[in-house]
Amino acid sequence: MVAQTIPVDDFDLVIIGGTGDLAKRKILPGLYRRMCAGQMPEGARIIAAARSDYSQKDFKDFVQEALESFVKSKKRNAEKIQNFLERLSYIKLDAMGEEGWKELAGSLRKDVVRAFYFSVGPSLFAPLAERLKLHKITDDASRIVVEKPFGRDLATAQALNDELANSFNENQIYRIDHYLGKETVQNLMALRFGNALFEPLWNAQHIDHVQITAAESLGVEGRGAYYDKSGAMRDMVQNHLMQLLCLTAMEPPTTFDAESVRNEKLKVIKALDPLDIEGGLVRGQYRADDKGQDYRTESGNPNSRTESFVAMKVEVSNWRWTGTPFYLRTGKKLRTRVSEIAIVFKDPPHSIFADSQDLKGNILTIRLQPDEGINLSMTIKEPGPGGMRLREVPLDMTFADALGEDIEDMPDAYERLIMDVIRGNQTLFMRGDEVEAAWAWIDPAIKAWEAGTAKPVEYDAGGNGPDDSLMLMHKDHRRWREISS
Ligand code: BG6
């Protein structure tokens, strides 16, 4: 039986920073796609609020342009675009001053879901929360959506949590990590908890190690000013990679509700051994590529010591995982863009075959991008006579092949998460204590780097990352999987 999509109530969604890059690339095109998929009720309205001096027409032109650039042409339909535009309005709003707040308060309807997406820099999160409350724009059922970065260390994350808590309850705060909205990330949970096959094997007795990779081929592009103050550890590890680690390592939650899932994720973070900063952590920075763009030039900081690559060995100290390390790596300007979780099972304990042919452990790969899917490497007999020759073949379920057309209509991470906000479902959002625990674990490494004088090791743009990262595996007699799509 195929379960029905959960319906969405009427809503007023206010996008603060509604003329910014995220709104243009992700939020507005995503909402349009959800409308086309029939998931937006007639009574859904979107209000963009920003500093820009836009008329209603200017804003609609901006949205039309965004749809043209970021929605596939076969999904664009003049009538539907018109319908979408009719749901939109624009308010000029000063996040730190008084302008626009009364108008915003007056434009919202009673008895519909009210959600406020803070698509602005983190310094505005707390002032916005305060003003929403001050102007009595929100009530106990309203929701706010907060983008990353959520703090830059434990202290700032705690301060931000405290500030938001002055105006909102935890069940009203939706901290976005867009990795949690990716189709395959949720499929990891379906795979683990919707099948009886894997769970009995999902432990240190059967799994040799786990590799989590988020490799990007692009550099820092136009985001140097932000990125250079952040680095891969804050930008990718503290949030995205740790979320993937938690979902892979957590115990089965009792139900798929927000509290059960988030409790289990938190337990994983609390079970992590402190990072071995000397022996289990590598940070790198990319050297020039063929266009001569090295990290320092691209970021605009000629003396930068910021890392554009991190690899680490992580130990989860609990009954399930002790003895099975998790290796995490992420970096910019690598060979190709690929994100995956690879569960490397132990080798068979004994070979019955002649010539001591190597029997390799099965590898279950959960591919987030590109070509989302799940792949299990299996050993089979090479077809034909001539003896028992073994070879590895993939048991491949690329979702696009397995599900055909449906994959085209899959919502992207942002649109899925926005609809969850409207539905009031926090399962795929980070809870305050989870974010703090992640910072508490990461902080000592970042502080040690910042206090020292050592530079990140260099790596070639377009490669697999620094040699030290290969060594990290090598000394454990293991190797990274190829970074290939
Ligand atoms: C963002 C980071 O959160 O995630 C970016 O700030 C990074 O630096 C991006 O490029 C990666 O996301 P995705 O979905 O392309 O893997």
Question: What topology does this entry show?
Answer:
Layout: E1 11-16, H1 21-36, E2 44-50, H2 56-70, H3 78-86, E3 88-92, H4 101-107, E4 113-118, H5 125-134, E5 143-146, H6 154-167, E6 173-175, H7 183-193, E7 207-215, H8 224-249, H9 258-270, E8 281-286, H10 295-299, E9 309-314, E10 326-331, E11 338-345, E12 363-369, E13 373-381, E14 390-398, H11 399-403, H12 413-423, H13 432-451, E15 457-459, H14 467-474
Parallel strand pairs: 1-2, 1-4, 2-3, 4-5, 5-6, 7-10, 8-15
Antiparallel strand pairs: 7-11, 8-9, 9-10, 11-12, 12-13, 13-14
Helix pairs in contact: 1-2, 1-12, 5-6, 6-13, 8-9, 8-13, 9-13
Question: How would you describe the overall organization of this protein?
Answer:
The chain is an alpha/beta fold and 485 residues long. It has 2 domains: 11-147, Rossmann fold, CATH 3.40.50; 180-406 and 441-474, Dihydrodipicolinate Reductase, domain 2 (2-Layer Sandwich). Helix content is 35%, strand content 19%. It is built from 14 helices and 15 strands. The strands form 2 sheets. The chain has a 9-stranded mixed β-sheet with strand order 14-13-12-11-7-10-9-8-15, with helices on both faces. The two termini are 34 Å apart. Bound molecules: 6-O-phosphono-beta-D-glucopyranose. 6-O-phosphono-beta-D-glucopyranose is lined by residues 216, 235, 339.
